[in-house]
Amino acid sequence: MSTFPSLASARAGGKIMLKKKLCACVNIIKSNSIYIWKNKLVNDNEYLCLFKTTKHSSDVLKSEIKKTHPYELPEIVELKMNRVDSNYFNWIIESTKNTRIK
Fold first, then answer.
1. pTM
2. Which one of 5, 6, 12, 73 counts the least CB within 10 Å of its CB?
3. Is the pLDDT of residue 37 over 80?
4. How many whole angstroms separate alpha carbon 39 and alpha carbon 73?
5. Is-contact 20 62, C-beta < 8 A?
């Protein structure tokens, strides 16, 4: 998962990863984040992207997020799934089978 500064940047980032087959789906959720950045308290609206992928594609996905992300220091968090419906997981595997890097 990763947060983005705007809906447009979240959609753009998601489309890049989908076109490269690095994920099967991206959920985009509007959120409000409060954090300390460069010694200042920041309260921003952000967009949280949940990228659905496989272990096989996760390292490349994280690398591509770093390369294309608008933030100086993007949040990139990997959550490991230990219980996933098998049909849904098979769809994720099929959707990311031929991972392309361009």
1. 0.90
2. 73
3. yes
4. 15
5. no
